[in-house]
Amino acid sequence: MDLGIRGRTALVCAASKGLGKGCATSLAREGVNLVVTARGKEALDRTAEELRATYGVTVIAVPGDIATEEGRRAALAACPAPDILVNNAGGPPPGDFREWDRDAWVKALDANMIAPILMIRAVVDGMIARGFGRIVNVTSGAVKAPIAELGLSNGARTGLTGFVAGLARKTVRHGVTVNNLLPGPFETDRLRSLLEHGARAAGKSYEEMRSARAAANPAGRLGTIAEFGDACAYLCSAQAGFITGQNLLVDGGAYPGTF
Fold first, then answer.
1. Residue 132 above 90 pLDDT?
2. Belongs to which family (predicted)?
3. Which has the closest alpha carbon to 217: 254, 173, 180?
4. CA–CA gap between residue 16 and residue 34 (Å, rounded)
5. Burial of 166 (0-12, 13-18, 19+ CB in 10 A)
6. Is the pTM of this model over 0.70?
7. For the segment 95-117, what is each residue's pLDDT rounded down to a tens digit?
């Protein structure tokens, strides 16, 4: 299936590895030129070179922290008029909410709510003027089914979800969609760190925790970043113009609800 976005330009945040890399890879395979950002320059440069060599698209690597004004400015200077924006950032640490002071909350909000909103603000009017835009925010399955020890993430990402719900109904008539992708358990460094945290608390090994997490999922396994990337690419496609303001769970059926 040709997704109809060959030759478009995408700005993909936190794209050096994990789910962000999955999104960048699937878009590159569809012929989308990329500007990719991440905090780690070495890993980002490796990913950019890999995508160039494999798919023959233009890939510009911009090291920086998208949660900071400096990082956003650098990314937007390299890609001021993207057709596609994939907002993504590392999640805040797990813990007990009694341990989190105001600074911890502000840091979580900066990374997982305010930064994506500011990125959207910077590019959405240009998308509207051009008559095409796709904005995908990588959030979390915890938006639908909160996880107690991820309170910082639950709060910040749910705030972003509420904001998107209003905006998405305003932009779609101009050819610009805004959607959220909600990952469940995927083979990423983020999941490994969460499982290691749980293993320490439970007095178990990481492998025990990983096996139990995979077995507990209705799919009987963890997700792959390629699967997640392909879901993102579809939401960015020409065919997805009638999908907006949605929260798409990609979790192997882990969420037990009807809606």
1. yes
2. Belongs to the short-chain dehydrogenases/reductases (SDR) family.
3. 254
4. 12
5. exposed
6. yes
7. 999 999 999 999 999 999 999 99
